[in-house]
Amino acid sequence: MAPTSLSARFGQSVSPDALRSYLAEFISTFLYVFCVVGSTMASQKMMINSAADPSNLVIAALANAFALSSAVYIAANISGGHVNPAVTFSMALGGRISVPTALFYWFSQMLAAVMACILLRISTVSTHVPTYTITSEMTGFGASILEGVLTFALVYTVYAAGDPRRGPLGAFGPLTIGFVAGANVLAAAPFSGGSMNPACAFGAAIVAGSFGNQAVYWVGPLVGAAVAGVLYDNVVFPSQASDSITGISEGGVGV
Predict the structure, then answer these.
(1) Which has more pLDDT, 103 or 45?
(2) At the fourth CATH level, which superfamily is domain 14-235?
(3) At what angle do helices 99-123 and 85-93 cross, to 10 degrees?
(4) Which of 229, 251, 71 is nearest to 158 (CA)?
(5) Cβ(80)–Cβ(229) under 8 Å?
(6) How far apart are CA 21 and CA 152, in angstroms?
(7) Which stretches are transmembrane (predicted)?
(8) What is the reported pLDDT for 1?
(9) Is 241's pLDDT higher than 60?
């Protein structure tokens, strides 16, 4: 049974609908990384000492919020609008998507991030592509914890915003996801960079040729995303959970 099941899952992962999902993830992730990394490059171009200018933090937060909201919205009905390997990892861990599909998602997201950074590098005449870094006062372990907490908040919001039991949210779901991403950048960008997205950090590192503390932007986000998914699906809002006020199960009211 196991080989048959594995073969069936792989077959689903290369179906026409699945291929469209990978393309949607590629496009959304490309646009997100292009805007986020590009906004940082633009602020560095316009400011003499952008690292010390508080307005640079606001620019990064707004770019994250606007770009992520748009990227999630345009892909939500096709691929789910993950736009982030950490979100995909959490969905695979919770059984919402198969492992082969998750791996294809990862490939699409990573390739999109690298291509976006390459395009920025070429089109701006070899302008330096900024990478995510941690402040000298922090250790790699501390930065991983911080990135994990940020990604926990992001992925928990993704689960809540996309939960059909909450009713149709339309554009408000992606907007909520973008808002929490922007807030996270405001809270932590000066300390750990506020990446929350391994693909974005990886793409910038590949093109810039700088891999310092790259593990921070993988370990922290993946762990934070996993905890968020497990907590939401199994503790806070399980599929057959009783309503905290009425005591009626979600299944019982047909939500």
Answers:
(1) 103
(2) Glycerol uptake facilitator protein. (1.20.1080.10)
(3) 180
(4) 229
(5) no
(6) 24
(7) 22-43, 55-76, 103-120, 141-159, 171-189
(8) 43
(9) no
